[in-house]
Design a protein that fits this description.
Length: 308
Amino acid sequence: MNAAKSSTATATTATAEPRPYVGRFAPTPSGDLHLGSLYTAAASYLDARAQRGRWLLRVEDLDRPREVAGSAERILRTLERFGFEWDGEVMRQSDRMEHYLGALQSLAARGLTYECSCSRRQLEDESRYPGTCRERPAVRGVATATRLRVEPGLIMFSDRIQGTYRQDVAAAAGDVILKRRDAVIAYLLAVVLDDAAQGVTHTVRGADLLDNTPRQIYLQQLLGLAPPSYAHVPVLTEPDDSKLAKSKRSVKLDEHSELPQLIAVFSLLGLAPPDALAAASIAEAWAWAIGRWGIHRVPKRLNMRVAV
């Protein structure tokens, strides 16, 4: 695991009091669902339903330049075809801008943010933000990003799949961005506020977000928000280790073979489905998987190769 060290760091452990289970799946409408997103959604759904919890949907549509027209609606229809049943209304980030801006104003009033005029090109050789604009005014007449002042200190949490994870956010990332130079709210701020607004208690998602989690916990602590319990499933990759989500061969799921694809996902999650499940209905397959589910069955790995 990536553990950033600092001589001035003090360990801070993220814990959460037991609350009624609320899980969520939060797709980005930048394309259709693929095997990797079906796999992550199924892990989240099974974990919620096995504990008789609620399962919510959130469309993360803040990054409009990346959004594909009609993608959000197609994602919802695909989830329905595969038998997912969510609770309540679908949250859309594009409806919540006032909440993000309000949080930015609150953090700024406490002296916890500053404006940064550094471009991506200026920082391309840096492994972390070096703090260039932290102590000097941003360049006038240039678009700025809003950065959070991150102080040294070790963030530690227990992932339900990957185990104990530690990171000094200041050493690993520096002062992180909350609002981009193009005025788009950063994922870090949006996900923290959205999870709190939806009352999310358990987050099950891909291990590609594992190193982002301490940064979310750091921000949650500043905002006085209770962190959810985290579980990061292995990221599905092709034989050459490229992320399956980026594969042109896996952009769309086959709309005529939902059950075989669902059974394949159950297998990837360690459930060992029997051959007889191939004759079941979608509802029967879900019922079997929910009864079989255990987070301990998910492979404790950061990535997992699959044949596509």
